[in-house]
Amino acid sequence: KNAKTLSFQNISLLLSSILLVMGILVLQVDLGAALIFYSIFIIMMYLSTGKRSWALFGLGVLIIAGICAYLSFSHVQLRVETWFNPWAEPQHGGYQLVQSLSALAAGGWFG
């Protein structure tokens, strides 16, 4: 019984600290770093516990957070739209994607 309580306390401490970091990053609108930190957190939780249900739950939370970010931030909407169709504005928002697709078409991975 004591080991379960200690485990729950450790997990809740870890969860509260990652939520604090994620909240700060979201308030700063640094969503890329938030995505990386959260993904590392989910991977570490899976590797330390071996529970697939936690990893799947974390993936579900990530999908819901992505949808919320898409609906809340206009720059995320623009990036998603550019990712789906970089040819709509090949000289502006889609420039890097168009260039990378052209490089792959011209020479593949190794040129």
Description:
- With 111 residues, the protein is mainly α.
- Helices cover 81% and strands 0% of the residues.
- The protein has helices spanning 2-27, 31-49, 52-72, 74-84, 95-107.
- Helix 1 (2-27) packs antiparallel against helix 2 (31-49) and helix 2 (31-49) packs antiparallel against helix 3.
- The longest helix is centred in the N-terminal third of the chain and has 26 residues, at 2-27.
- The termini are far apart.
- The relative contact order is 0.06.
- The model has no long low-confidence stretch (mean pLDDT 83).
Give a brief description.
The chain is an all-alpha fold.
Short descriptors:
single chain; 5 helices
Estimate the mean pLDDT confidence.
83
**End-to-end distance:** 60 Å
Shape field: elongated
Oligomer: single chain
Gyration radius, rounded: 19 Å
Per DSSP E runs of 2 or more residues, the count of β-strands stands at 0
Number of helices: 5
Please write the string of helix (H) and strand (E) elements: HHHHH
* Helix coverage percent: over 70%
Task: Extract low-pLDDT stretches.
Answer: none
Largest sheet: none
Structural class: mainly alpha
